[in-house]
Each structure stands twice: as C-alpha cells, then as structure tokens.
Design a protein that fits this description.
Transcription Regulator spoIIAA, 14 helices, 19 strands, alpha/beta, five-stranded mixed β-barrel, 441 residues, binds FE3-S4 cluster, Rossmann fold, OB fold (Dihydrolipoamide Acetyltransferase, E2P), six-stranded parallel beta sheet, binds S-adenosyl-L-homocysteine, 35% helix
Length: 441
C-alpha cells in the first residue's frame, strides 16, 4: 500500500466553514489523504476562507505568502483555496497567485476529489459554480470513527435577505434547505459515533423549510422535535437566526423542548430604526425587543446573544446611542461586534463612509458595555446548578472542560469525569472567560 498523502486544512470564518472543512477532509480521504496539523509536511494545503470583512479576506493572501518558500522547495505540494473568498475572488486568485493550483467555491465541494486530481497533472482547477445538486449528498461520511461529543450539522445554506453590508448572499448563493430525512440520517449517524450535542447550522437557520418525510415542508421547530426523538442525542442548538424568521412554533419549542438548549443567537446589528432601514434589515428596534420579550416569556432563563455593526454609513451619535440603549434593554449574555467594513459589490460600500476613529471609539464603548453585561450574567451563575457536557481535558491535572446549557465554558477538576459525560455541576467561581464548578453526581 502506498503511504497516505497529507492534507493540511486551515479554517477561517463561521461554523459553517468548520463543518465544510470536516466534509472536505472526508471527501479527500477517498483520494488517499489523511489530515495533518502542520503545513510543513503536507502534500496539500487547503485554506477554507471567509470574505465577511476586509480583514478576514486579507488573511488569505498573507497566509499564501507564507507558503511561497514551502512550494518552491516542494513543487509537488498542491495549494488550494476554498470557501467564500474563493467564491468571491476565485478568478483573481488564479490570476494573481500562480502558486495556487486549485480554487473551489462553497457549493462545489463534492467536486473536490476531481479538482484535486486535475490539479495534479500540472494544470490548475477552478470551480465556483452554484450547481443544482446537493453537495452534501455527494459528500458521504466515510469511516464510522468515534467523534467529539459536540458536532455541527448544516441544514440550510445561503441567504435571500441581502442586508446592504453583507457578502453572504453572493458567496453562498440563494437560500436552500436540506431535506429533513437527510438531516435526521446524518444526526443518527453522528449519535452512533458518540455525539451528544448537535448544533444545526445555517446562515439563516430559522428560515429552514426542508422537505419532510410526509411531503410537506418542515419548519426548523418541526425538525428540532424530530431530532428530540433520537435516543442518545441530549442537546440541540441552532445558529444563526434572523429576527424576522423567528416563528411561533420555534419560540414555543424553547419553552417545551427539553433538549433544546436555553441559548439563542439573534443578531440585531443596530438599535436605530433609520440605520436598520438603510441596512435593509426589514425589522425595527421595537419589533426586535418585543420578540425578545416573547422568547423570554417562553423560556425565562434563555441567554441571548447578538451581533452588532458600528459605524455603518450615516450612523450619527444619536443612532449609536439608540444601539447602546437597545443593548441596555436586552442584557446580552454574549455578543460579537464589528466596525463596518466595506465589501465590494454590496450596496453600502458605495455610500459615504464614516471616519475610522469614530468607528473605533464607538466599537470600544459598545464592547465595554457588552463585556459588563456578559460578566454580570456569568457572575450570576455562581452558586447555581447547571448541566455540563464535557468536551476535553483541561490544562491542569484531572481538570475537564465542558459547556453549560448556556454555552458558558465550565472547568471542573474531578478524576471521575470522562469526555462525553453530562453532569450536574455547582458553579463556584466566575473567571474572565469561564466558570469553575464542582460535579454533583
Ligand atoms: N446571517 C447572520 C450573520 C452572518 S455574518 C445574520 O443575519 O445575522 C456574521 C456577522 O458579521 C453579521 O451578523 C454582522 O454583524 C457581521 N458582518 C457582516 N457583514 C459585515 C460587514 N460588511 N462589516 C462588518 N461586519 C459585518
Ligand atoms: Fe448576511 Fe443579512 Fe443574510 Fe445575515 S441575513 S447572512 S447578515 S444578508
Ligand atoms: Fe465568512 Fe462565508 Fe461564513 S463569508 S462568515 S465563511 S458564510
């Protein structure tokens, strides 16, 4: 038997890329590749990229620069660019980066083995189509190897919302939902391999409307209830949701489905109605606050997380204050915030831009407020009993690290805990980015 070839894959961007990278490793397994953790001994380097902000896209080019020497020492080394930068700038990458052998967009991963073979014969390969076929159907999981206890599962891809700042509708294409039966099959398969928590993924996951086994279209809530019936699957999460797609049955499920975890990532982006309009978000601050109220009525302890963009074109001091006030009202347990970054081809990129120092100052203020809220919620966990799914060993002897139902990282030192265990834990201390606790059972 020939030596397996080594694949080094580096993943940027969102969880959907993490999921895609796993699928690509499996697909290339069929071409004789095994994964390696260092680029130095790789036969193929694959960058799974993100285009969401300028900085994210730039990383690809600086990373490629690092491989120049490697490639000149090892001419057989194949270098590939996948993901959203490949989709958005694939042709240009091919033109400007002669060291790149292969470019593949997010909808064409099932063609990766073919492209890899083609790139091997001295020619270069590019595929940034949006084919009709379901890429996941062709990306069958290979050996039934044991897995970590928490896994991602993509159920929906693409976006039809066209927020004025965002590249996703262009890089991932139109909204598509995977048929429910395929999702359930994949979930059962994951559970057989040791998975106890599944996070359903989609750029707009709550817009899910996949074909159900009965021929009707299933909502995300319906899919969650079907997953709830799988023995051995203990926890269900989903991300990312759009406020406008938060339907009644999904809100209700947060109150009634025990396996659905009390954590919801529900980005609002801004608290100013004028800016929300200019962002083409199709919801206003009031409707978002009402929605949060309804979700909290269904599940009072739910932890709300969000995304914010500061310094969007035309954002005044007052608009920014409106965002700060919305944050004060919601009380976030977690949030991601960004300075607006112009993205080529999106409507907002053409508008007059705010000075960088204004963006920086607003971002600092917003992040300080979020950190305060995050800490307060985390600190309020001390003395409480939570359930923790343990995912890995910690840095210290006999220390294990897991996630509470609220997605807080929890550290427990206890020799009886195994990876994959779900245990009741009393929280004893709140640290900057984690909690400490003691196992109760
Ligand atoms: N589908 C999700 C988010 C996808 S992108 C949603 O609808 O919310 C993840 C986050 O990146 C967004 O929520 C937004 O806060 C941020 N983002 C997207 N485009 C951006 C841009 N051009 N500049 C800065 N932040 C951006
Ligand atoms: Fe981007 Fe808006 Fe779609 Fe989210 S809903 S992926 S922010 S266009
Ligand atoms: Fe980035 Fe593409 Fe995800 S642009 S955030 S990797 S969908």
């Amino acid at each position: 038997m020939s030596e397996p070839k080594k694949l080094y894959i580096k993943t940027y961007g969102c969880q959907m890329n993490v999921y895609d990278s796993e699928r690509m490793v499996e697909a290339l397994g069929g071409s004789g590749y095994v994964e390696t953790q260092t680029p130095d001994d790789a036969d193929m380097i694959l960058l799974n990229t993100c285009h969401i902000r300028e900085k994210a896209a730039e990383k690809v080019y600086s990373e490629l620069g690092r491989y120049k020497t490697l490639k000149s020492e090892k001419p057989d080394l194949k270098i590939g660019v996948a993901g959203c930068v490949a989709q958005a700038e694939g042709e240009e990458i091919m033109r400007r980066q002669p060291m790149v052998d292969l470019v593949v967009g997010p909808q064409s991963y099932h063609r990766l083995p073919e492209l890899e073979a083609k790139a091997g014969t001295g020619s270069r390969a590019i595929d940034t189509d949006f084919p009709e076929e379901d890429k996941f159907e062709h990306l069958k999981r290979r050996p039934k190897a044991k897995r970590a206890p928490a896994a991602f599962l993509t159920v929906q891809e693409g976006c039809d919302k066209f927020c004025a700042f965002c590249v996703v509708p262009y890089t991932r294409g139109a909204e598509v939902s995977r048929p429910a039966e395929r999702v359930l099959q994949e979930a059962r398969d994951l559970v057989e391999r040791g998975v106890r928590e599944i996070t359903l993924l989609g750029q707009n996951v709550n817009a899910y409307h996949g074909a159900g086994a009965d021929g009707s279209e299933w909502t995300l809530a319906r899919l969650i209830w079907e997953l709830d019936a799988i023995d051995g699957l203990e926890r269900i999460r989903f991300t990312t949701s759009h406020p406008n797609d938060m339907q009644d049955d999904l809100i209700e499920a947060h109150g009634t489905c025990k396996k659905l975890m009390p954590y919801l990532h529900l980005p609002v982006q801004s608290g100013s109605d004028k800016i929300l309009k200019r962002m083409n978000r199709s919801h206003d601050a009031q409707s978002y606050l009402k929605l949060i109220e309804r979700i909290r009525a269904a599940r009072p302890d739910i932890l709300i997380s969000g995304d914010f963009i500061v310094g969007f074109p035309e954002e005044t001091d007052q608009d920014f204050e409106d965002t700060m006030n919305l944050i004060r009202e919601v009380q976030y347990g977690q949030a991601f915030s960004f300075k607006y970054s112009t993205r080529p081809g999106t409507p907002a990129a053409e508008r007059d831009q705010l000075p960088e120092d204004v963006k920086t100052e607003r971002l600092h203020r917003l992040q300080a407020l979020i950190t305060e809220q995050q800490r307060a919620i985390q600190d309020s966990m001390v003395g409480r009993e939570v359930s923790v799914l343990f995912e890995r060993a910690g840095r210290f002897e006999e220390q294990m690290v897991g996630k509470s139902e609220y997605l807080h990282a929890v550290h427990v030192t206890d020799p009886t805990i195994q990876i994959g265990d779900i245990r009741r834990v009393r929280i004893t201390q709140s640290n900057p980015n984690s909690l400490d606790g003691q196992a109760l059972n």
